[in-house]
Amino acid sequence: MAMKIRLARGGSKKRPFYRIVATDSRMPRDGRFIEKLGTYNPLLPKDSEQRVQMDIDAVKAWLDKGAQPTDRVARMLEAAGVLEKKERSNPKKAVPGKKAQDRAEEKAAKAAAAAEAAAAPAEEEAAAEE
Fold first, then answer.
1. What are the structural domain ranges in the chain?
2. CA–CA separation, 64 vs 60, rounded Å?
3. Of the candidates 59, 23, 86, the residue with the CA atom closest to the CA atom of residue 6
4. Where in this protein does the record put region Disordered (predicted)?
């Protein structure tokens, strides 16, 4: 049985509230779980102590049993000092999207055309003076 430590959504529409639960990976997101390990309220400020509350001892026990945390829960555990910080790499994050690249190319072409147009009259004037 593959165990996961993940978030189960609660709360009403546009007012999310999550339980941190230990569950079988085959169960639905908001379905049956084995144990509630804590809560996460994303509506609270990031510096609030009430935003993420976990039973650290229970989480460590589940990790020792082989439960795998999801990425979001792993980040919370790293912040709490339970897991070591994992190196993440997303090299495409800083690359602009296709439309932004197209706009940048158009802007560069217009700037080059304007510079060329500005340089052409200066050359004509220099030739006329000679």
1. 3-80, 94-130
2. 6
3. 23
4. 82-130
- Cβ neighbors of 37 (< 8 A, separation 6 or more) are 5, 20, 21, 22, 54, 55, 58, 59, 62
Identify residue 101 by its one-letter amino acid code: Q
Could you give the dihedral angle defined by the CA atoms of residues 54, 55, 58 and 62, in that order, rounded to the nearest 10 degrees?
0
Per-residue pLDDT of the chain (130 residues; tens, 9 = 90+): 689 999 999 999 999 999 999 999 898 888 889 999 999 999 999 899 999 999 999 999 999 999 999 999 999 999 998 888 888 787 888 888 899 999 999 999 999 998 888 877 666 665 666 5
Residue in the block written with tokens 């217009």: 110
Dig out the tokens for 85 from the structure.
């910080």
pTM beyond 0.70: the answer is no
Contact between residue 33 and residue 22 where contact means Cβ atoms under 8 Å apart: yes
